[in-house]
Design a protein that fits this description.
By secondary structure, this protein is mainly α. 79% of the residues lie in helices and 0% in strands. The protein has 19 helices and no strands. Helix 6 packs across helix 18, helix 7 (126-150) packs antiparallel against helix 14 (247-261) and helix 14 crosses helix 15 (263-283). The longest helix is centred in the last third of the chain and has 30 residues, at 321-350. It is globular. The two termini are 15 Å apart.
Length: 394
C-alpha cells in the first residue's frame, strides 16, 4: 500500500507540472517569435531524435533493473532545462526541446510498467494510480492559465520546475526496480522481433498511431487554435481543466469497463469517441463548443490509454515489460507526435482550425477501423482478462 501511495503522489506532481507548462509551451514559443509551422518542425525534430534513443531506456531498465534511476532522470533533466525555453534563438530551443524529450519520452513507459507491477501485487488497478496524473493535469492546466494572466508566460517554467522536483523527491523513496529482479531471458532484438512479428499487434500500433496523432492538435495547438477562433487564455485554461478532470472518472472506472467488454473493445470505444469529439468541432468550430466538447476527452483518451497500456502489458513477457511499453510509447507518443506536430501545425497555419479538425476526424476514423480488426481478432482467440483488473475493485 505504501508504494501505491507514493506512486499516486508521483503521478499527481507529474500532472501538475505537465498541466501548468505543457499546454502553454506553444504560447511561450509564439511569444519568442515562432509560428505554428516552426513549432511543429521543432517538436517533430526533437521527437524523432528521442525515438531513436528511447529503446535504450527500456533495455537499461529491463536488463539492469534501473527503473528508479531512469525514472528520476526522465523528470529531473527536463525540469532543469525548462528555463532555457525563454531563448529567442531557434537552434537553442531545438536543442533544449530535443534533450528534454530524450529524457521525458521514457517517463510514461517506465512509470507505467512500475505502476502496473505495483497494482498487480497490491490487488489494485493501474487506472486507480494513473488517474492522479489527470487530477494534477486538470488543476495544473487551470492554474497555468491563471498564472499566465497574473504574471507572464515567460516564467511558466517556475511551477514546472517546482512540481517536478517534488516528483523527483518521491521517486527517490521508491525501490530500485518495479518488482522482483527479472533478468531478460532473451536478447533485446529477439524481444522486439517477437512483438513486431504479430500482425494483430502491428494493427494495434497502427490504430494507436492514427488516433493519438490527433492529440497533438489538442496538447500542442489547442491554446493557439482557441485564440484563433476568438477564445481567451482564461477560457482556454477552463477547457484544459475540463479535459483533464474528465479523465479522473474515466480512468477510475476503466478497469471495470475492460472487465465487461475486454481491452480491445475498450480501445475501439475510445477511438470512436475520438471521431465524435473531432466531428463535433468540424461541424461547430466555436470557442464555446471547443470548451464543451472537452467532456469527451476523458472517455476518449482515458479509456483508450488505460486499455492500451494493459493490452501491451498482457502480451509482453514479464522480463520485457519496460521494453514493451517503450515500443508502444515510441509509436503512440513518438511517431504519432512527429506526424501530429508537423501535420497539424501546417494545417493550422495554412488552413485554420477547420482543416486541422477535419484531418483529426479522418485520422481517428482510420485508426478505429484498424482497432476494429484487433477487436475481432481478439474475439476469435478469446484472450484472458487483464491481470491488473482481476479481483480488484474500482
Amino acid at each position: 500500500m505504501e508504494k501505491l501511495v507514493k506512486l499516486r503522489g508521483f503521478y499527481l506532481f507529474l500532472g501538475l507540472a505537465g498541466g501548468s507548462f505543457g499546454s502553454y509551451l506553444t504560447l511561450l514559443l509564439t511569444k519568442n517569435g515562432l509560428d505554428s509551422g516552426q513549432i511543429g518542425l521543432l517538436m517533430a525534430t526533437g521527437t524523432l531524435i528521442a525515438i531513436c534513443i528511447q529503446p535504450m531506456w527500456g533495455m537499461i531498465s529491463d536488463r539492469y533493473n534501473q527503473t528508479r534511476l531512469v525514472l528520476i532522470l526522465s523528470v529531473a533533466v527536463p525540469a532543469v532545462l525548462a528555463v532555457f525555453y525563454r531563448s529567442e534563438y531557434f537552434i537553442v530551443l531545438l536543442l533544449v526541446y530535443t534533450v528534454s524529450t530524450v529524457f521525458s519520452s521514457t517517463q510514461a513507459p517506465i512509470a507505467d510498467s512500475y505502476a502496473i507491477a505495483a497494482a498487480n501485487r497490491a490487488g489494485s488497478t493501474y487506472g486507480s494510480i494513473r488517474l492522479m496524473m489527470s487530477i494534477g493535469a486538470a488543476v495544473g492546466g487551470y492554474a497555468g492559465g491563471m498564472y499566465v494572466n497574473a504574471f507572464s508566460v515567460s516564467s511558466i517554467w517556475l511551477p514546472f520546475l517546482f512540481f517536478n522536483l517534488l516528483a523527483v523527491f518521491i521517486a527517490l523513496t521508491l525501490p530500485r526496480q518495479a518488482e522482483e529482479n527479472h533478468m531478460m531471458s532473451q536478447s533485446f532484438k529477439q524481444g522486439i522481433r517477437q512483438l513486431l512479428g504479430n500482425r494483430v499487434f502491428l494493427a494495434f500500433l497502427g490504430g494507436s498511431f492514427l488516433v493519438n496523432q490527433t492529440m497533438t492538435a489538442f496538447g500542442t495547438y489547442f491554446v493557439l487554435a482557441f485564440q484563433s477562433v476568438g477564445g481567451s487564455i482564461q477560457y482556454a485554461g477552463i477547457a484544459l481543466f475540463l479535459a483533464s478532470v474528465t479523465n479522473v472518472p474515466s480512468m477510475f472506472f476503466a478497469s471495470g469497463v475492460i472487465r465487461k467488454i475486454g481491452r480491445e473493445r475498450t480501445l475501439l470505444l475510445g477511438a470512436i469517441i475520438y471521431v465524435l469529439r473531432w466531428g463535433i468541432q468540424v461541424a461547430f468550430p466555436y470557442p464555446s463548443v471547443m470548451i464543451g466538447v472537452q467532456v469527451l476527452h476523458g472517455l476518449s483518451f482515458g479509456f483508450f490509454y488505460i486499455a492500451a497500456v494493459e493490452y501491451v502489458s498482457q502480451i509482453t513477457s514479464r522480463e520485457m515489460q519496460a521494453t514493451g511499453q517503450s515500443v508502444f510509447n515510441m509509436v503512440f507518443t513518438g511517431f504519432a507526435g512527429i506526424l501530429g506536430n508537423l501535420l497539424n501545425g501546417v494545417l493550422l497555419n495554412r488552413g485554420g482550425v477547420e482543416a486541422m479538425n477535419m484531418s483529426c476526424m479522418l485520422s481517428s476514423a482510420a485508426g478505429a477501423l484498424l482497432l476494429l480488426y484487433v477487436a475481432r481478432s481478439a474475439r476469435r482467440k478469446k484472450l484472458p482478462l487483464p491481470l491488473a483488473s482481476e479481483g480488484a475493485g474500482v
